[in-house]
């Protein structure tokens, strides 16, 4: 399982425009083979900040997502709206039994 936390910051005042692009990538991403969870969040109190929380079955599923037409279109169309993008790969800490 691959778990991702992607923090996306729009340029000041461009959060609404960026949100339009972010919303368009959610449904097709959720429909991809190997997508376990794909959620979009806005950071409370910051209309220009967003977070994607994603879970992918494996690296092949994530690679296919990154190569998909809808993801590439989003990246191209949203590029001028972004101030920053930080992607973190998370490792779950399992509870000790």
Summarize the entry for a quick read:
By secondary structure, this protein is α+β, with helices and mostly antiparallel strands.
Quote the distance from N terminus to C terminus.
21 Å
Number of domains: 1
Total DSSP E strands: 4
Q: Assign the CATH architecture.
A: 2-Layer Sandwich
| Helix content, binned percent | 25-40%
Number of helical regions: 3
Radius of gyration, in Å, reads 14 Å
Strand order within the widest beta sheet: 2-3-1-4
Along the chain, the helix and strand elements come as: EHEEHHE
Which residue ranges are poorly predicted, with pLDDT under 50 across at least 5 consecutive positions? none
Q: What is the strand content?
A: 35-45%
Enter the CATH topology name. Answer: Alpha-Beta Plaits
Outline the biggest β-sheet.
4 strands, antiparallel
Q: What is the residue-averaged pLDDT?
A: 96
By secondary-structure content and strand pairing, the structural class works out as alpha+beta
Shape: globular
Which CATH first-tier class would you pick? Alpha Beta
């Amino acid at each position: 399982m691959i778990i991702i936390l992607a923090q996306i910051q729009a340029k000041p005042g461009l959060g609404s425009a960026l949100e339009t692009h972010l919303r368009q990538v959610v449904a097709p991403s959720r429909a991809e083979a190997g997508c376990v969870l794909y959620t979009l969040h806005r950071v409370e109190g910051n209309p220009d900040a967003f977070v994607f929380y994603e879970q992918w079955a494996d690296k092949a599923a994530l690679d296919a997502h990154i190569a998909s037409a809808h993801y590439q279109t989003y990246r191209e169309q949203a590029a001028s709206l972004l101030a920053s993008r930080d992607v973190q790969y998370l490792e779950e800490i399992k509870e000790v039994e």
